[in-house]
Write a structure and sequence with these properties.
This protein has helices at 8-23, 39-45, 64-71, and strands at residues 28-32, 52-56, 78-81, 93-100, 103-109. It is α+β, with helices and mostly antiparallel strands.
């Protein structure tokens, strides 16, 4: 429990460190949404001393480096869901993997 409106950005690394100490965990992988991402959090996640794997969700068009290096890459999308026939069908979705150095991106495209 955290007081008031404490955000994930301020608590994520503290919680990871606390859990690792308490349960003596060596290696972890964090899955988080864009509400937990900041420059400081990314810096801590990429610290080799911490040895933390991570999967982060983000709106990539808002990050210039990703726009330039990931969204501009050619590649084939694989259809996950086609255009539905009824409003209850899942939204159309295509995905592709883009590898930039040591980072892997899964680009999701909803054509609607």
């Amino acid at each position: 429990m955290w007081p008031g409106n404490t955000t994930d950005v301020k608590t994520l690394i503290l919680v990871i460190d606390r859990i690792r100490r308490r349960f003596q965990i060596g290696r972890v992988c964090i899955v988080a949404d864009r509400g937990a991402i900041s420059v400081e959090v990314l810096r801590a996640l990429e610290d080799p001393e911490r040895n933390i794997g991570y999967i982060l969700g983000t709106r990539m068009r808002n990050v210039n480096q990703i726009k330039r290096d990931v969204l501009s890459r050619a590649g084939r999308y694989k259809k996950v869901y086609p255009q539905g026939k009824s409003p209850k069908d899942p939204a159309p979705l295509k995905v592709k993997e883009v590898i930039c150095g040591r980072s892997h991106y899964i680009v999701c495209l909803n054509t609607k």
